[in-house]
């Protein structure tokens, strides 16, 4: 099971990377098998992404990052919030990915910011972005403000851990459902061994026969 983490933190150390690490650890604890985790640090790809917009072609390093993201079984995407939305670097990276490449892929979205007032950016910016890319975004999005990092286990001040646990369980459940052989892993239109009418031992009547039965007798 391949889990890819995209983090758009600009500083080192970064609160965005710290949140990404906590989410990754929570998800990997919950999946039924050992996860192969890859982290994509967008800060290291900023120049490569800019060159892609100018030339129209990704270089080897950016292409490798894109291939990791598109080949992942699940994705954790974390961005700092600037001016009430995701960072330009975060958006630019997902702009260079084909808009069909993430179709059906489970995604956990998260963000960091200086104040809780920007938490709705997850709903009005990040969730619509991944909905456009046709990814499957887990119900719980995780926002961490500066004050969230000071909690000491108090249920009234340390809600970040609870949000991380809930979001991680939702993503882990989707990842488990995508394991080969599960119904969720089959492509639309792919046949299964079970057909309508099997439960009652009935034969599936072809549509042509049904039409013939409706014709008046001569």
UniProtKB/TrEMBL annotation:
Residue ranges constituting the NADPH-dependent FMN reductase-like domain according to the UniProt record: 1-149
Keywords: Flavoprotein, FMN, Oxidoreductase
Gene3D superfamilies (UniProt xref): 3.40.50.360
Recorded GO MF terms: oxidoreductase activity
Ranges annotated as biased composition (Basic and acidic residues): 176-206
Pfam families in the record: FMN_red (PF03358)
InterPro entries: CE1759_FMN_reduct, Flavoprotein-like_sf, FMN_Rdtase-like_dom, NAD(P)H-dep_FMN_reductase
Matching SUPFAM superfamilies: Flavoproteins
Residue ranges, annotated region (Disordered): 176-208
NCBIfam families, A to Z: LLM_duo_CE1759 (TIGR04037)
Entry protein name: FMN reductase
